[in-house]
Amino acid sequence: MSLLFEELDYRPTPIGELSLRRRRELRLGVDVLEIKLGEEHLMSSLFTASEIALARLGLAPLRDDGALDVVVGGLGLGYTAQAVLEHSAVRSLVVVEMLEAVIDWHREGLLPLGPELTADPRCRFVAGDFFAMTGSASGFDAEQPGRRFDAILVDIDHSPEALLDERSRGFYLPQGLRVLAGHLRPGGVFGLWSNDRPDPAFVERLAGVFASAWAEPVTFHNTLQDRPFTQTVYLARTAAEVPPAA
């Protein structure tokens, strides 16, 4: 039997104190991995349905020709990245993570998905500020400045209104979303995870920037509270490229 509680690592960061913890959930008989920033719970291995859904829903509208290039903003426990790599059409994945400790935990094998992600030649971790990269001309890949992608999937803040850091607020406004759309190829998909239920006002904001936008509720059973819980994946798509006239 594992320890009831163990702090696996602790690091100060520019946005607060970060810790990786393992605890035994006695009622369920499982070990739970958690990442906390100060007093905020960032993620838990107990609830991963919506993180996986972000990848699956985000890639579902795209072509299946084995040549998709994807960005994931926010590495976390790695469930979104793993689900992206399960898609046979994905050619490359860039995972942007601001907290270098999280990348270290994957590379050092402290997190269970780390060996799988680091061993996949399609997957590359990039240490950096996703929101700053969005606003830069070079974008998300320093090796190919200005490179555009088929999908950009983001799981960083709790929701478009509940932010980890106020510096990201502009990203969720129309101008920030337009800049993000410029990093997508024609017909590309922007996917955003939210801890809250769907917000029609945010869908409307997306629709004002992208060719189409919608929200997908993701409901799962909260085993701790013994009740259903609903989170959201927002999706938006750029206009498809119009083929030249014959």
Your description of this structure?
With 246 residues, the protein is an alpha/beta fold. The chain has one domain: Rossmann fold. Helices cover 22% and strands 37% of the residues. It is built from seven helices and eleven strands. It has helices at residues 49-59, 79-85, 100-107, 114-119, 130-134, 174-181, 200-207, and strands at 5-13, 16-25, 30-37, 40-44, 68-73, 90-97, 123-127, 149-154, 184-194, 212-222, 227-237. The strands form two sheets. A seven-stranded mixed β-sheet has the order 7-6-5-8-9-11-10, with helices on both faces. Strands 1-2-3-4 form a four-stranded antiparallel β-sheet, with no helix packed on it. α1 (49-59) runs parallel beside α2. The longest helix is centred in the N-terminal third of the chain and has 11 residues, at 49-59. The protein is globular and about 55 Å long. The termini are far apart. The mean pLDDT is 94.
Q: Tags for this entry?
A:
single chain; 246 residues; Rossmann fold; globular
Q: Compute the CA-based radius of gyration.
A: 18 Å
> Which consecutive residue ranges, at least 5 long each, have pLDDT under 50?
none
In the CATH hierarchy, the architecture is 3-Layer(aba) Sandwich
- Specify the biggest β-sheet: 7 strands, mixed
Class from helix and strand fractions? alpha/beta
- What is the molecular shape? globular
- Beta fraction of the residues? 35-45%
Instruction: State the end-to-end CA separation.
Output: 69 Å
Instruction: Provide the residue-averaged pLDDT.
Output: 94
Compressed to H and E, one letter per element, the order equals EEEEHEHEHHEHEHEHEE
DSSP, total strands: 11
